[in-house]
Amino acid sequence: MSDNAAPRAAADAPDAAGAAGASYAAAGVDIEAGDTAVELMKKWVAGAQRPESVGGLGGFAGLFDASALRGYTRPLLASATDGVGTKVAVAQRMDVHDTIGRDLVAMVVDDLVVCGAEPLFMTDYICVGKVHPERVAAIVKGIAEGCVLAGCALVGGETAEHPGLLGPDEYDVAGAGTGVVEADRLLGAERVRAGDVVIGMASSGLHSNGYSLVRHVLLERMGWSLERRVPELGRTLGEELLEPTRIYSLDCLALVRATEVHAFAHITGGGLAANLARVVPDGLTARLDRASWTPAPVFSLVGAAGRVARPELEKTLNMGVGMVAVVPGEAVEAALTTLAGREVDAWVLGTVEERTEHRGDAAAAVVLHGDHPVPGA
């Protein structure tokens, strides 16, 4: 497994005139701090492995034993990469860094599992303005914990120090993952048929999308602090905004093993309609009933505080639905039972029907109707 800190440099030395020469440290890159960060993260990385993981921390590349794929007839490798957007700004302001890594893993592995792929391994990239070893280790701790929840290995990573590009307390994270699926078990729009049922899986909150809108409304326009306790949320605003993204990969894989599944859709940027439309084939429409679920209070809070119109909310935020499964009608009971057994709040969102409109855009592929129930009514 690779996890390198900033590149190594020669020690400071006086120049020909006897004055101290320029150095990497003087330019703002702290090699020793990077090495300390690697030492601190080792125990977390060690716990995020699979039997196929090869080697240890400190190599130039992460290794994974591909002989495990011999059991497949025609293995297809799936790859995904992502970040967590401006949610990192909330983590930085709160000085809480051990959850953002779980968000990163979720954004990657939940994209992989959509096609039916089992996530195998991940690599991460952490770019910082200044290496604070404990902070970097906390970020990696979250990534490692996320990998355990996703059933994949953390096989490599890079920590890069970019003084002058980022402030001393600023950072960003990105990750890439690889999974595998048997070719004849590949899920997607090709399997979806009229009569299929759409099942929603509850999100844990905002997840990792739409934070530019949320921060603009609640922090800038409303002027709220992250320490503000919000009665509707039952906790502070910062605690709500840092709630980790739910990782659905093992739940989705369990669902595939338990019953027939035609497609999944990970509800991220673009919202429910735009993401589900990606797995609805031409000629069909998914009709979803808003009355089938009540979004968590944070969504109505953003809408009311910012006077955000419903179409804008629905195309920006997940509105309480983090993952969607499309299954044949006869598989609904088994699917809901399986998800309930895994403590996933799931329900029937709607159905897939023959399209009556001849348009070929996303608006015709997914139609939301009705209104969400009024809490407490």
From TrEMBL:
Example of a GO biological process term: 'de novo' IMP biosynthetic process
The protein's matches in InterPro entries, at most eight in alphabetical order, are given as: PurM-like_C_dom, PurM-like_C_sf, PurM-like_N, PurM-like_N_sf, PurM_cligase
* CDD domains registered for this protein in UniProt: PurM
Q: What is its EC number?
A: 6.3.3.1
Q: What EC class does the entry list?
A: ligase
- Answer yes or no on keyword Signal: no
This protein's major location comes to cytoplasm
One Gene Ontology term of the molecular function aspect = phosphoribosylformylglycinamidine cyclo-ligase activity
Keywords of the record, alphabetical order, are: ATP-binding, Cytoplasm, Ligase, Nucleotide-binding, Purine biosynthesis
Named in its record, the pathway it takes part in is: Purine metabolism; IMP biosynthesis via de novo pathway; 5-amino-1-(5-phospho-D-ribosyl)imidazole from N(2)-formyl-N(1)-(5-phospho-D-ribosyl)glycinamide: step 2/2
One Pfam family assigned to this protein is: AIRS_C
Q: Which reaction does it catalyse?
A: 2-formamido-N(1)-(5-O-phospho-beta-D-ribosyl)acetamidine + ATP = 5-amino-1-(5-phospho-beta-D-ribosyl)imidazole + ADP + phosphate + H(+)
| Ranges of residues in domain PurM-like C-terminal | 193-358
Q: Which residues form the PurM-like N-terminal domain?
A: 72-181
User: Per the record, GO CC terms?
Assistant: cytosol
Record localization: Cytoplasm
Concerning its family, UniProt says:
Belongs to the AIR synthase family.
Database matches in PANTHER family:
TRIFUNCTIONAL PURINE BIOSYNTHETIC PROTEIN ADENOSINE-3, TRIFUNCTIONAL PURINE BIOSYNTHETIC PROTEIN ADENOSINE-3-RELATED
Protein name in UniProt: Phosphoribosylformylglycinamidine cyclo-ligase
Q: Which gene encodes it?
A: purM
